[in-house]
Structure prediction request, 611 residues.
Amino acid sequence: MKGSRPLLLQLAITLLDNGGIHSFVFPIANTKSRTGRRSSVNINTININNHRDIEATNSAIDYSSMTTLPRHPQNDDANDILAQTEQALRSMQENVLFSASMDAETNEAEFISEDDDNTDGRDEVAEGESVYANSYVDLGKVDTVGFDFDYTLVTYRKELLRLIYDMSLKRLVEEKEYPREMLTSGLKFDPFFSIRGLAVDRENGWICHLAYTHKVAVAWEGRHRVPRPKLMDEYSGKRALSPTERKKRLKPLNDLFSMAECCLMADTVQFFLDRDIPFCPRSAVNDVLGSITGTHISGEFHKKVAQEPAKYFEDKPYLRAVLDLMKESGKRLIFVSNSPFWYCDAGMNHVIGPEWRDQWDVVITSAGKPSFYTEDNRPFREVDIGTGKLKFKQVLKLEKGRVYTSGCLKELTKCINWKHPLSFSPDGDDYDDIYSPLTTPNIMYVGDSLFADLVDAKREFGWTTAAVTPEIGWEIELQRKTEFIIADRAIEMLLNSLRLYQRSLGTGIRSKDDLAVMDKMERIVSRWRDEQTRLLGNPFGSVFRARYTPSLFAHSLRRYCDLYMSNVGSFRHYSPQHRFYPESPKLLSHEIRGTNPECCDIDDPIFNINC
Prediction:
């Protein structure tokens, strides 16, 4: 296949990065070894350690049944398609895995040399550190940039979610009188269980992953996956709820803090199920949510983190450079966080230094987003930097170097009086922003929480929005791995085979044998999708995909965010006047597939793996 050699080189490099090939077993034809002799490789199973070090993923996966396709008892034409697909699947796996292993063993120096030729390292940086665009954005026209604090300007080590989990569990036992055994039974935060963008069903306590159509793609009751028949029965055979039911039953878990919330919810339900303790799911959900909220409101974990910033905050080596570059280009910087000043001060001192406020034109803490965007009668109060207490005086103007709290967007437009940084009047007249309220795409806000930080800013005021989505980095890394590439290709080949199979059957009524083959093929596709979920290292799979469709989180990300990136430091790769163009605005199948909407032929390059 044209261009296949560079791909195999990349796959081999990936395997080298993973520490080599641990065990591959597929029943395939003999292949030449580096000595020129035919070498038999048994590739029925594959066992490659997941980079996230999850013990459950270290067991060998049987791939033989996932590459053995059913046969039609009567239709030879259909069987030809199935046989060719089966051979293509096995050839693809043979060539990718065996060539990668042999090349990794014999040509390591060659790979290093070729890799060194890419001196700028751009291909490696471009994906994990890129800023991705959903719409056209001209940074040169952005004159004001606002930033959130938590998981945006600062990011946290796993210890923070463990701390929130432990404090909330203790609060659940001590304040809600849950069994004290929960404190000694080994319950702890599991970073490999939950992902962002889930929802908890208040009626049954299930943790649900929603597709963009609001269909429940997968659900977990405690630490056990809900079987499909039970899922269909609970949601009226369509795995979805009406808008009214969704509002009543589903509580979104959208931000990164909610991963501790999700884990504690599942562990609490599992604790009761394991011990046959009767419980009301709605009460359990409300109690866990209340305990998490109480932990946040009380400031308990904030105090702990502020006392040991190095333990909980990650270092941000590129943050200062990004902020300085934006300031040098004439952009105003606004700091708007829901966290209290003393906590923000501790975090910014750690990542920037004690002079961090010098970079900001306005600093607003305890802002109360999203109410900050929607309410119009919340005045600003000034914070005494020395004591942390609120001053009684009325705030009529926001001044650089001072710190404010509460407020709202309407008040912000009243209290600013800046010269427009990008206007150059020939007669020297001042440009006063008081006459141009902050309802313009020339203001960009950067945050991590879609609904607390970004949705209202985009929907109500037309701001340019940029989401910090750290999941991009590690998902891209995983999807480059050999195992994931094989699974992705296998799914594509099987779906295409199903299209060809149906075309061979014609337009008539399907027989039981016709449908039975399709059912078996679909189950194999489902197993490959399960394998992709396993490789992603959590029971829900990708943050951006709900099984085979875009997730509700991905849909919201595309709808409400102009830009998204793994971290704020990604901006360092771009000029402050950079223009972002979306990769592709294509959305519907006819746009993506073009003139061949159903399928490609067996001799299409997708099947031509032996070249």
About this structure: The first helix runs from residue 4 to 17. Confidence is low (pLDDT under 50) at residues 1-60, 107-125, 420-436, 605-611.
